[in-house]
Design a protein that fits this description.
alpha/beta
Amino acid sequence: MGLGWINPEDYSFNSFLLMERFQIRLMMESGGWRNNKDEWKYSMGVALNANPAVKWYLERKCPECASALNEITVNAPTLTGAAEIRRAEVYALASVEDWVTHTTPEVMETNCQYIRDWDKERLYEMADLKDKIVLDVGAGSGRLTFAAAALAKEVYASEPVETMREFIRNKAKNESITNIRVAEALATSIPYPDNLFDIVMSGHVVGDDWDAEIAELTRVCKSGGWLLDCPGDDTPKSDGRVGSEKLDELVMRGWEKMEYIGNGGGNVCRYRKRIWK
């Protein structure tokens, strides 16, 4: 079952031309997010055979995946029927629905419940942002960034996906918000010096590599500053980063849990940790 954020049939297979190297690598390593990996390989192979320019881009954007891409295309038939090809394209798009959605970040504020129904007061309850220098790690379309910018001195939004970075820049410009800075970065490689930020926050990011991510967030946080993990509102089609599944890991690492009932009716667990060096 998909997330329900978009209808993949509305998207071109050329959406893959907007994907970043790390996204391509993770997609190829996992075979998309659906359970039927054989079906994914077949559909992706058919779609790539019908769209050689997309295959060319993926191979060159992510050269470490070139052999795997070649394998799935060699093992898939070259179909000529438009309906069959489109069916394969839609399956491939749906298998990474979240990343396809990222190619049109303007739809996220209306289509993604965790953004649409989220209240910025949930962030403000976690720490005093007034006149602070804040970093939003994995900023996405800017849910936390824009909330923090209303109070903070400066907000730095680090985000690895170009379409998201451009969306934040354009929104800030259109709304005459002048205290937001945007940079390209992964959570494990933040391009800022040690001890720079009063608050380092993220949502739906930490958890892929606990040690490396938390170490990097801690590195750029000032002594006496805060690390905040503030996910969006509860949704029945969550990506698995909203509820209490983070509890054991972050609490064991010294984080404080702050829980509330989201607009979707489920528990939303936020976490924070004061950093002393």
